[in-house]
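Sample entry (146 residues):
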Amino acid sequence: MNEDIAKHPPDQLFQLVTDRWTSPFWDATQQHRLTAACCADCKTFRMPPTPFCPNCLSQKIDWPTLSGVGEIYSYTIVSKAIFPEMESSLPYVPCLITLPDADNIRLISNIVDVPVNRIAIGLSVKVVWANMPDGSVVPRFTLRNL
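Predicted structure, serialized as tokens:
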């Protein structure tokens, strides 16, 4: 039986744009380190990183290293190409991952390299790193227990 495997989305869909609030996240990915913005004053996590803490309005941010383990909160399976260059990347699986060691904030990513029919909300995932043609590194996720 031939199972569809969740592929990496097309590289041309990724264009990294950073600013002073998001660059620490992307700097950490270069070291294969998952992190999230955490208020240095009240310890509230936030994703995406924003100039002000939504809890206390502080602009002080820490960037703790996270375990890279999460849980699938939501996902969809993209199986139709909206332009011809996407055809070889199908199916790919955009997802929302809950990060329990960051107060359950959610990170938008992709699930990769697993049978699509095994993906389900609530399953445990771990980070894997995708090296992009522009030199950036993107966190993606795969199932922990296949």
